Amino acid sequence: MWKWLHSYADPERAYNLSGKLLPWFAMLATALVGIGSVWGLAFAPTDYQQGDSYRIIFIHVPAASMSMAAYMAMASSAFIGLVWQIKSADWAAAAIAPIGAVITFIALITGATWGKPMWGTWWVWDARLTSELVLLFLYLGVIALYASFEDKVLAARAAGILAIVGVINIPIIKYSVEWWSSLHQPSTIRITEKSTMSTDMLYPLLINIAGFGLMIGAITLIRFRSEILARNGMRPWVRELAIAEGVK
Amino acid sequence: MQFDSLADFFNMGGYAFYVWLAYGVTFFSLGTLVISSLRQKRKVLNDIAKKIQREDRLKANRSN
Amino acid sequence: MKKGISFRQAFFTLLKRDLQIAIRHKGDIFNPLLFFILVVTLFPLGIGPEPQVLSRVAPGVIWVAALLASMLSLERLFKADYTDGSLEQMLLSPQPLPLMVLAKVLAHWILTGVPLILVAPLLAVLLHLEDNSYGALIATLALGTPVLSLLGAIGVALTVGLHKGGVLLSLLILPLYIPVLIFATTAIDAAGMNLPYSGHLAIIGAMLVGSLVLAPFAIGASLRVSTN
């Protein structure tokens, strides 16, 4: 098992494997997000309380749930890279960070556009929104730290430490923010409870959650591949590839 | 189909602005991310190819 | 030479050295303190002199100013040692790195955290803080500022090798400061309303214990990356 895994730590094999996986991820992701969004936008029944504005849920909830999952994925690969010195894991972490930031940004924006018609305001200092905002800052910190080192081996280690420190802090931040908002907001606003959702609404939502997950996987593979190429510029196989596909 | 006509669909029961803003921002930023990620690979390969060309030119000059 | 020095000796030698250096450069102690005082005095000028408004925002203002002052002073924590090479000596020494790092952070807290705690009540007077809140203010600062120093030191250790550390540092560590800020200010608010606040203090205490145990290792690992 370990031997098998280690063979994929070799950059060339990792590059080729991710190249083989990419079309499947991309196709499935496009299909699922397409089906889920069209179903959600056009075919799911109108909510009797929120009218059609609730249709934002089909992208908001997937983005919000994936934003945390992407951070966990980034931190675990950073951990693997730090502890077992597997460089591919470092590159994977570096590939996920910008994607996670974009997903978190989407979750915030869709939350705001949903909040405006429902709560009458673009932003409330609600626990979920606030911790999502903090999560965005954590992502941006990791990205900025990774970008500011010239030596990318060091950059990956530094950003990895920061990501892991962030993981330890996320539950504390979440808890403190929840506690804080319940204290400052006695008449709090509730997002519709998920359990009361009819299956006609639930299926497109689940499809979109799966689709967003696969899409993050697909974009991670794309970025992971270019990260491998950039970090292995001196290897013969990369040079051959560059000569074949590079400048005309 | 939940809506009677296409105009109804775009109207989103009066919430058109918010719904389409949310979907627009989402797919725009995802699209930008995908395109920039794809371009990144091209750029990396171009940079390496240029570097190889430069090295080759240096080598050629030196052997003269 | 064979025996070397004990862990305790190493810890106190480093602590004493850092304190001595700082006492010789008095600016290191006074500049963050002045910054803290100035930021707090700016707030009444910005939001108006009404006592009710000021006493409502006083806990938050004092704590945010303390957060910024602590971050500002942290930037210098490892810088001098990094440039003159003594940090590398520290990394090479046989004593465990987390211990040495803890000594440095403790020295930093004594130099910047403690003066801040001493000045805070005076500033609280300027901001018309509720009379009941003074105890809570001191207690939260006493428990909270070491957490700030410990968490902040991780960010400083990560950025010490970089030339443009300043803005990056704030992006790295301010999000981590949020829990301390929340629990400290709500504790002061609760005290102002004559409510019990020992629970808040216990949580800040737990954060202090947690960061005392974990942060030195993270700081040590970060220093090893930065000095590579």
From TrEMBL, chain A:
Main location: membrane
InterPro entries to which the protein is assigned, alphabetical: Cyt_c_assembly (IPR002541), Cyt_c_biogenesis_CcmC (IPR003557), Cyt_c_biogenesis_CcsA/CcmC (IPR045062)
Top-level taxon in the UniProt lineage: Bacteria
Compartment list: Cell inner membrane; Membrane
Keywords of this entry: Cell inner membrane, Cell membrane, Cytochrome c-type biogenesis, Membrane, Transmembrane, Transmembrane helix, Transport
Membrane topology, record value: Multi-pass membrane protein
One cellular component term from this protein's GO annotations in UniProt: plasma membrane
Gene Ontology molecular-function annotations: heme binding; heme transmembrane transporter activity
Keyword ATP-binding carried by entry: no
BP term (GO), one: cytochrome complex assembly
Domain Cytochrome c assembly protein: 13-184
Transmembrane segments annotated in the record for this chain: 21-44, 56-84, 91-115, 127-147, 154-173, 202-224
One Pfam family from the record: Cytochrom_C_asm
Family to which the UniProt record says this protein belongs: Belongs to the CcmC/CycZ/HelC family.
Functional description taken from the UniProt entry: Required for the export of heme to the periplasm for the biogenesis of c-type cytochromes.
Protein name: Heme exporter protein C
Automatic annotation (TrEMBL), chain B:
Topology of this chain in the membrane: Single-pass membrane protein
Location of the protein in the cell: Cell inner membrane
Domain of life: Bacteria
Biological process per Gene Ontology, one example term: cytochrome c biosynthetic process
Pfam family, one: CcmD
Keyword entries, A-Z: Cell inner membrane, Cell membrane, Cytochrome c-type biogenesis, Membrane, Transmembrane, Transmembrane helix, Transport
Transmembrane segments: 15-35
Gene Ontology cellular-component terms listed: plasma membrane
Family: Belongs to the CcmD/CycX/HelD family.
Function comment: Required for the export of heme to the periplasm for the biogenesis of c-type cytochromes.
Name listed for the protein in its UniProt record: Heme exporter protein D
Organism expressing this protein natively: Shewanella hanedai
Automatic annotation (TrEMBL), chain C:
GO terms under biological process: cytochrome c biosynthetic process; cytochrome complex assembly
Annotated transmembrane regions: 29-48, 60-78, 99-127, 133-160, 167-188, 200-223
Pfam families: CcmB (PF03379)
Subcellular location: Cell inner membrane
Any one of the GO CC terms: plasma membrane
Lineage top rank: taxon: Bacteria
Membrane topology, as annotated: Multi-pass membrane protein
Alphabetized PANTHER family for the sequence: CYTOCHROME C BIOGENESIS B-RELATED, HEME EXPORTER PROTEIN B
Function noted in UniProt: Required for the export of heme to the periplasm for the biogenesis of c-type cytochromes.
NCBIfam families linked: ccmB
Protein name: Heme exporter protein B
